[in-house]
Write a sequence for this structure.
């Protein structure tokens, strides 16, 4: 690929690597200090000390909520948990051959079509839509997993927090406190990560003055890919392929010899380790101990150690999140939709930020095709 003057219109940075395209106040990724800040707060501290609901408020409004603000947000969120009939019917009508991410994407699109305020881009309307979407997505994900298991819909409960209700509607059982805590930590860690591929997608769509649902529908599509959110599923598929810790090194050698990307490892921004991994790994360790699944913990370590030795590449958040979701009881194909239910907060925070200081996102390309030529007369 050719490259001309640095910073000039002819300079090409494949994959926009290292390109700063705009400012943001939502989060800061600092690869040097290996940190991720949501509105200034270290994400690992938020995971330890706050609920996912408080983090949602923080990402949307810039500050952690006061008790009154949290109470008001809670009432609104709980009142929008139930699936609209048309969305329930859509989920139940789609073939189970469809990937759950396709189901979520379709549901978000339908929610947009059903919402008479979809094209109202005022800050109040955008915030209301973001809150409703966040509230309803667990119901979509839960129903989709249940129907694939031949189970009926479980109605949401308004006496449970976001994470607990998500587990309740998925499994129809009172969730154990350690399961709620582990799931909530994952939701906090997944909620936001600056200009990642799906968030940037949402911002590009917003920049055309399109609506919030269109931006989120497109973002779901971007997140589905295994180089992005789809990696958490692929980690569990690799674990199933490997089987046990003693086979991890040989499996890795074969995979690397076949030039396969090892899912759950590497990151475009972090080159010295993903700042979210230690917190999620500690959470996974708790789940491993609780479920008596030392074998899974050993497999995790064996593959990570072999990857560090062979390639010097460290895990990203999807590596511990995949087995954690497995231990929580989710089907592997449901892992990326869980990521959606969390990241929708970050996406919509960015939609609102983009809206507030918009410029159409329209980069240039360098043409390398056929030179100008005459169209033959026929
Ligand atoms: N497995 C094997 N090799 C890898 C991996 C990996 N997971 N990640 C990077 N490399 C190698 C590449 O092959 C390349 O080697 P080369 O220079 O010899 O060709 C080198 O490291 C640089 O890798 P790039 O792909 O150019 O790095 P980039 O910044 O573009 O990629 C990415 C980042 C896409 C995340 C990559 O590491 C990858 O594909 N990882 C696996 C998918 C994954 O886990 N995605 C989740 C991302 S985090 C998230 O969404 C929560």
């Amino acid at each position: 690929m050719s490259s001309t003057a640095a910073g000039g219109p002819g300079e090409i940075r494949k994959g926009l690597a290292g390109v700063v395209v705009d400012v943001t106040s939502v989060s800061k990724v600092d690869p040097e200090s290996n940190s991720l800040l949501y509105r200034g707060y270290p994400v690992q501290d938020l995971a330890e000390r706050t609920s996912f609901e408080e983090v949602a408020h923080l990402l949307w409004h810039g500050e952690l909520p006061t008790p009154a603000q949290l109470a008001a947000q809670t009432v609104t969120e709980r009142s929008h948990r139930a699936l609209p009939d048309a969305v329930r019917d859509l989920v139940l009508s789609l073939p189970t051959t469809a990937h759950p991410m396709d189901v979520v994407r379709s549901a978000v699109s339908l929610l947009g079509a059903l919402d008479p305020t979809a094209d109202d881009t005022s800050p109040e309307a955008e915030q209301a839509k973001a809150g409703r979407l966040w509230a309803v997505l667990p119901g979509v994900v839960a129903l989709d997993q249940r129907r694939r298991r031949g189970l009926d819909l479980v109605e949401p409960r308004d006496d449970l927090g976001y994470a607990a209700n998500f587990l309740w509607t998925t499994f129809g059982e009172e969730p154990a406190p350690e399961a709620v805590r582990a799931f909530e930590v994952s939701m906090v860690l997944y909620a936001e990560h600056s200009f990642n591929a799906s968030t940037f997608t949402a911002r590009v769509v917003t920049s055309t003055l399109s609506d919030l649902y269109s931006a989120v529908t497109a973002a779901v599509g971007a997140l589905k890919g295994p180089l992005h959110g789809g990696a958490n599923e692929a980690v569990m598929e690799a674990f199933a392929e490997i089987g046990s810790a003693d086979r991890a090194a040989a499996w890795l050698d074969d995979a690397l010899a076949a030039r396969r990307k090892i899912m759950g490892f590497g990151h475009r921004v972090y080159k010295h380790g993903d700042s979210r991994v230690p917190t999620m790994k500690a959470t996974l360790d708790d789940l491993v101990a609780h479920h008596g699944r030392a074998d899974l913990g050993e497999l995790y370590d064996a593959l990570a150690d072999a990857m560090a030795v062979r390639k010097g590449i460290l895990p990203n958040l999807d590596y511990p999140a995949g087995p954690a979701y497995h231990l929580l009881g989710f089907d592997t194909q449901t892992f990326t939709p869980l990521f959606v239910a969390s990241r929708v907060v970050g996406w919509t925070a960015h939609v609102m930020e983009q809206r507030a200081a918009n410029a159409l996102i329209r980069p240039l390309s360098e043409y390398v095709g056929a030179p100008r030529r005459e169209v033959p007369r026929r």
User: Anything to note?
Assistant: Confidence is low (pLDDT under 50) at residues 1-6.
